[in-house]
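Molecular record:
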Amino acid sequence: MLYSYLNNLKLSKWASLLGAFTFSFSGFFISWLEWGTIIHVGLWLPLILLSIDKITSNIPKKHVWLFAYLISMIFSFFAGHLQTFFYVAIFSFCYFLSKWWQYGRKKNILILYIVFNVLFIILSSVQWIPTLQLISLSARGIDVISIDNPGWLIPWQHMIQFVVPDFFGNPTTLNYWGVWNYGELVGYIGIMPLILALFAMFYRRDKKTLFFGTAFFMGLIFSFPTYFAKIPYLLKIPYLSTAQPTRLLFIIDFALAVLSSLGFDYLLRIKRKVAIISPLVFISIVLVSLWVFIPKGHLLVVKSNLLLPTILLAISVVLLIVLINITKNKKFTVVICTTILAISLFDLFRFGWKFTSFTQRPYLFPPTKTLSFLQKNLGDFRIMATDSRIFPPNFPAVYKLQSLDGYDPLYLLRYGELIAASERKKADITPPFGFNRIITPHNYESRIADLLGVKYVLSFSTLNVPKLVKVFQEGQTMVYENKNVIPRAFFVNTIKLSENKEESMKMLFDTSIDLTRAGIVENQNENLNLSWSVGSANIIQYDENKVIIDTKNEDVGFLILTDTFYPTWKASIDGKRAKIFVTDYNFRGVIVPSGKHIIEFYDSLF
């Protein structure tokens, strides 16, 4: 699609192909290739810009392109990464304004643009509403990394990665020595495309170059540690203050890809091609400087990773010098242009293939005896590990094992507070929690762990706790069974009422309250019985969006399901809607009539 957009800008086919290749294999796209949502959001931007071009220009049948704009915006939003979509929306809005201004500021075009954006909001509201609800209930704004934390903004030294992507090593080859996360900081677009992008910014004078050049520099200003980049965090602007600015590499790489296309097109058209020498000299100086000032502590890694960019630069110099001298030979020009595309594609494909190496599934997710034991015996209970090397966050999900940890910036605030108090061993829910957005609880002695249904604790060391009994060992990994574990669904014979979450948390830590027999119901205005009948509860189906429980009770009972309370979850008893009470600070409680019943918890907006 970027090829079509660039072709619409009346750029040559050679230039359009180069821009399309560069964008597809750019550092941002390669580093986030494993996260399909992010890539899927970004790939709609060229169609959005092409649609805007058609809408604002003097062509018939604008309605076709209005619908193309609407559909591409909807698909980009539904792809599922809000931050990248925010950049897409802001970028496309600025692009529309520039085009609208350029083509006469027609009111009817502006009205159509507004109408179709309102239509986009209406059609996508089915996702906007639950998304905003989730954000309002999440802990995203609590454990925000400091702007001074290395890697939150792109360190200045990592500008080197625009020229030499693996100057700081590569995590795939296990020799990365740069700041924090390679994937967040690499903006590489290839040696030849970078030369041509710089050429466009140095010499091409038109509105297209001005727009994308400005976008490139704005991306740098707000993603590197400048004063302007810190403004959203200093002012605590909602959403922006919790969004990691390194993701602006999407805009930077997209702008560079378009600029490389503009530069290539300009080089093929102008007579004074010798001007290309300036960016060649600039890149050469950078590479020579890197060779001269190689850090002694990383000599072998850096020298190895400087070699290929140097060779590619030398080839680029030869190709461009030849191109300068064959302006009248069209057949030879085709050969050189084909070679330029081939070299650029090789450069970017090699870069991408190295980072996104493909490994056999058993290497990353190995089948082990410990896993087999857990899968056979865990049932509806949960696990926890004392060391993240045993189970990195979210890995248990691959094996269909439920755990307390999670690698997700949108974990709910209530759950974050509950785990924070458990780890602190006291009823303290004051932020920050110190999780760095990754919940990794290790306090297996806490009765919160019992309440959360932790049946097995995995450890590399011996655990001398009365409630834990070692039941399995494989190599250094020991599995302990928690004899105090509380079932996932159970009846209590009494409830205690609390006025707010602080009081609920204090009750959870009150050892005089037996959590297997008492439930803590929060902030209820209606009168509730304090004594209930205790019956049996058996989970007969447990899926991501539905939990079905078979119950039997001689009298009216109060059932607790230790799954996180969330507003969109509903409950029914034999098909009739039942109220869910916020219970035990974070969980779900329902009143169940006497007799045999089927309780169903299900996720539904309505």
